[in-house]
Design a protein that fits this description.
Blueprint: E1 12-18, E2 23-30, H1 32-39, H2 45-62, E3 71-77, E4 83-91, E5 94-101, H3 103-107, H4 115-119, E6 123-129, E7 136-142, H5 148-159, E8 164-172, E9 178-187, H6 205-214, H7 219-222, H8 229-237, E10 244-245, E11 249-250, E12 252-253, H9 259-266, H10 271-277, E13 283-288, E14 293-298
Parallel strand pairs: 5-12
Antiparallel strand pairs: 1-2, 1-10, 1-11, 2-9, 3-4, 3-6, 4-5, 6-7, 8-9, 13-14
Length: 307
């Protein structure tokens, strides 16, 4: 009798809490969504891996949003680095991202350039936009670690004083397509009135235990689509007295550009500026950096209809 192959667990994120350890977490894995985003650009392997890790981190952080209309934006930028700009965002389970880089300079670095080699003196900005309240929270940290994961940990420690652990892993499926997985753990401050906030203490016995267990998660496990996400949580915390697994979020590629939206944006410009944007045939061509598509909009679309 042969074992039935497990269905691939991809393009999903789940949350969980460890009540007695004052901790919460997220785990995610990207497959077809990642392939869709990367296939829009002919990225070389180092940029492909960088964006895959950034998109995985975006899925982990974005899926923590309680506001269904909220948006998480991850932006890495530098003035003198080979990578001049990297942007990813998450909204309602939809992911998108792209990278601007100097291909000639990148080719001189070899197959596995370091984060510093690509960004030089770069920084990472993490922005949470809450649609329901209109509030925006942003934190900025230097990209001075060895990985995007370390930069994210620095963000939460410096901007929110919350100890965190981020693990990211990349792999390939049987057809050679990239698979990316991630684990995100956080120590929860209590914060109730009259009680000491946990993160103000010098010692974190509960967090030290959770962090040590989370650090044992391997990149190969995170990127193995045959392992259900719930099983990853079980592997780490099966000896805990209580683990609460939360509802999962399905992930998809979600570039929000379309001809109607672009026409609306162009319609806000003065007529003389739209005229300057148009070519000799009276066509304004707008290209989307996220999906690498061009959207031609004729100037005649903005001509007022006679009464």
């Amino acid at each position: 009798m042969t074992d039935t192959p497990r269905p691939a667990d991809l393009d999903r994120a789940i949350g969980f809490t460890l009540p007695e350890r004052n901790a919460r977490g997220r785990v995610t894995r990207l497959g077809p969504v990642l392939d869709e985003i990367l296939s829009a650009h002919a990225y070389p392997p180092p940029i492909e891996r960088l964006l895959a890790e950034a998109l995985t981190l975006t899925a982990l952080l974005g899926s923590t949003l309680k506001d269904a209309g909220g948006q998480l934006t991850l932006q890495a930028q530098t003035q003198h680095g080979i990578v001049s700009l990297m942007v990813c965002d998450y909204k309602g389970g939809e992911l998108r991202g792209y990278v601007q880089y100097d291909a000639d300079r990148l080719a001189l670095l070899g197959k596995n350039p370091s984060l510093f080699a690509m960004f030089n003196q770069g920084y990472l900005a993490v922005t949470f936009d809450q649609a329901a309240t209109g509030e925006r929270y942003q934190g900025i940290v230097p990209l001075d670690g060895d990985s995007i994961a370390q930069a994210a940990e620095s963000y939460f420690l410096q901007s929110e004083q919350i100890p965190s652990l981020v693990r990211l892993g990349l792999g390939r499926d049987a057809e050679g397509r990239l698979i990316a997985g991630g684990l995100f753990l956080q120590h929860l401050p209590e914060g109730e009135e009259g009680r000491e906030r946990l993160h103000t203490r010098l010692d974190h016995p509960e967090w030290g235990h959770v962090e040590a267990l989370g650090a044992t998660m391997g990149a190969d496990e995170l990127a193995d689509s045959s392992i259900p996400l719930e099983n990853l949580v079980w592997r780490l915390f099966n000896e805990e007295s209580e683990v609460r697994v939360l509802a999962g979020a399905e992930l998809s590629r979600g570039c929000r550009c379309d001809a109607e939206y672009i026409t609306q944006v162009l319609g806000k410009f003065p007529p003389e500026e739209r005229q300057a944007m148009a070519d000799a045939e009276g066509m304004i061509t707008v290209d989307c950096a996220f999906c690498a598509r061009n959207f031609p909009v004729p100037l005649s679309d903005f001509t007022a209809s006679p009464l």
